[in-house]
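Please check this one:

***
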Amino acid sequence: MVTDARSVMETPPPTLPALRVMPMPADLNPAGDVFGGWVMAMVDIAGALPAVRQARSRVVTVAVNSFVFRQPVSVGDIVSFHADVASVGRSSITVDVHVFAERNPANPVVVKVTEARLTYVALDAQGAKRAVEQARVACLPPPSGKELVLRTMPMPADLNPAGDVFGGWIMAMVDIAGAVPATRVARSKVATVAVDSFLFKQPVSVGDIVSFHAEIVHVGKTSVTVDVEVFAQRHPENPVVVKVTEAKLTYVAVDEFRAKREIGAG
């Protein structure tokens, strides 16, 4: 178990999360909670991101030094993975990951669900260990003034036949990202009723860190309109951030019977 002071952290740190995702029904185990393996996989990805920045090359996981599940994760939780380099060796990088879940849109609460420490090793182009710099590497500044609501990394299963990330994957993630602030305002479930605009500016590739930033632009009697901007961070050896998508979507608040409800109604 992690024994340093960060292991008692019960509130998210002020830094942006390495990943922020929302599990889906396909990620459930037979008991109805999110499968622990899904959480472990996402922790491994989250921990690798600062390790890659530090190494400026690919890395591989060589050890899970500790892993503690504090609470179960549920479908609909907004799960944030905060990762920070704990130590740097000659070729290894150890990372602490703290995981928090935002839940209960009618009365939002944030709880710590997982903490872990993992060690990665930097590799060169031939797959051999390589030395890494000891100096701390700064993160790139946020690319948007809007709230970061999702941050994830597409995988090979998300590719289209041309080798780019499938546009439908991006559209689905944009829809989820826009629904997050809409749900907070509605304090209930919401349903997408319109995609007012959707523009693809650049393709997305496997390995990009894709950030979805959202901002509410209008609240009606039952509807919420949200702007979403999407950015990709790529090239770990020389990181750059590019805008890949922008969209505007409208959602309607619904009650437990899936009928429209007024926003702000009890």
Remarks:
- Residues 113 and 188 are 23 Å apart (CA to CA).
- The chain has two helices and ten strands.
- The mean pLDDT is 92.
- The first helix runs from residue 36 to 55.
